[in-house]
Automatic annotation (TrEMBL), chain A:
InterPro entries per record: DhaM (IPR039643), PTS_EIIA_man-typ (IPR004701), PTS_EIIA_man-typ_sf (IPR036662)
Stated name of the protein: PTS fructose transporter subunit IIA
One Pfam family it belongs to: EIIA-man
Source taxon at top rank: Bacteria
All copies of domain PTS EIIA type-4, residue ranges: 10-140
Key words, A-Z: Transferase
Keyword Ion transport: no
From TrEMBL, chain B:
InterPro entries: DhaK_L_YcgS, DhaL_dom, DhaL_dom_sf, Dihydroxyacetone_Kinase
Listed name of the protein: Dihydroxyacetone kinase subunit L
Superkingdom: Bacteria
A Pfam family per the record: Dak2
Molecular function via GO: kinase activity
Keyword list, A-Z: Kinase, Transferase
Record-annotated DhaL domain positions: 11-205
Amino acid sequence: MSEQQDTPPRVGIVLVSHSKEVADSVARLAVGLAAGRDSAPVEGAGGGPDGGLGTSAELISAAAHKVDTGAGVAVLVDLGSAVLTVKVLLAEGDELPENAQLVDAPLVEGAIAAVVASAGGADLAEVAAAAEEAYHFRKV
Amino acid sequence: MTDLTDELDADVIFRWLTAAAASVEREADVLTELDSAIGDADHGSNLQRGFAAVVTALGKESPSAPGPVLILAGRQLVSSVGGASGPLYGTLLRRTGKALGDAERVTGAQLAEAMRIGVDAVAQLGGAALGDKTMLDALYPGVEALAAGGPHPYGAARTAADEGALATVPMRARKGRASYLGERSVGHKDPGATSSALLFTALAGAVADE
């Protein structure tokens, strides 16, 4: 479900969760719901350094480089250490692709919005805006 | 007898971090026990993994100045802890190390000032403040006492950090997973503040300011 060599390059999306299953499943869900279009490069980076629940800086960094096609990388996270680890990796400067951005969005709804936007050719700012907008979608 | 004019080299910082690793190892069950009350019960094992990685990394590559030792240790914590304490402690050590620069010897006063920069960076990263029932409630008193100097600044820092950790018991958590518990977080000692106090104990031991 990752790199698909589209032209023009698509914004890459990394989904960081404390759970590998959640990260990978949300990636599949988002790509599935964006069907009918060419998908965007999406990678899950879930679970901790020991394979259990947690956050792995290495997995996040590897996933971000994998989905980077030059158009930017949107990183969506669940909570706690996922948020803090991505912030620290961005602050360190050389751990993530230069155009990576932490997007302030709910993980599931944000991922779907981000994948649909990216697959439709949106740039990084537009992908981030689409994902952030998911916070304002009221369900009741 | 150590005061803030005494100089510290890479060896002292190495001893500090090694002592911290030993202490985290020894107290891992206690930290996890505290974390099982208001967190997700992994603080001890997470820190144990992180500090073990620090010791391994310092064994392979031991920089000859305090700053680079702390930066190397900080990077290990970010990459190997797996919980929020990784990026937080990683930031503390890394920012402290960066503030010290490449000098082969630094005074205690310079270390205190650098640690204050590190603690401020932790506060900024976590968006937390004093009184939120976090590691900051031990780190700020510890670093303030250290900076204040006196005949036993490191011992004073250890005492202040311990008291700060103890003072988290009646607090209500406003950050992290414990904050979801609201009032039910009251009455438990914060695991992060407890492990932060261990850092000051290890530092006092490393400079032999008993």
